[in-house]
Amino acid sequence: MSAFFHSPLAGAELLGLFGHFLVLSLLAVGGAITTAPDMHRYIVAEHHWITDAQFSASIAIAQAAPGPNVLFVAVIGWNVAGPIGAAVTMCGTLLPSTALTLYATRWGAQRRETRGLRAFTTGLTPLTIGLLVATGWLLAAPYVVGNGLHAVGALALIGISIGVMTRTRISPMWLVGLGAVVGALGGV
Predict the structure, then answer these.
(1) CB neighbours of 176 closer than 8 A, spacing ≥ 6?
(2) Which residues lie below 8 Å from residue 124, measured CB to CB, with a gap of 6+?
């Protein structure tokens, strides 16, 4: 049973991983996925615990699976340090955001019609969009930058997705399906 809980990271590294995800949890305006660029910086670029491909695959696998979007955090943690890594990253992500959400929901419900609260929520919209664009670029960059014909296909899929999402009410799942078909055919 102790082999199951063995981690390639030392206790201090696990604590650092927990602390980093704890801080990111409080910055995750628009969901945990918006903090993926900084997760990438910390895990891939700074510590080299996993590769770019492993990081992107972790997000792709978790997003394709049924369940909450935050599951990608557990998959990244698993790839970094096995079951302990998954537990550390999920606890770091869920504990502060859950506590803050419970408090903020109660506080906001009592003040929902105040000018300051309405201004605050309106101001979060461009921040969330910017964080999602950064995450999209991080995930698309390996396919777009210096990848020849595949870059054209990836850019075409991105353009089609943006056009469809901004001009129609079609479910995003159709676009995911389109991406899967194009990828299966070797287009990207």
Answers:
(1) none
(2) 29, 30
Question: Per the structure, how many domains does the chain have?
Answer: 1
CA-atom Rg of the chain in angstroms = 19
End-to-end CA distance of the chain: 42
Residue of 34, 46, 47 whose CA lies nearest to 73 = 34
Q: What is the pTM of this model?
A: 0.62
Owning domain of residue 36: 11-114
pLDDT tens per residue across span 72-108: 999 999 999 999 999 999 999 999 988 988 998 898 8
As a residue count, the chain comes to: 188
Residue 121 domain flag: no
Identify whether 119 is part of a domain: no
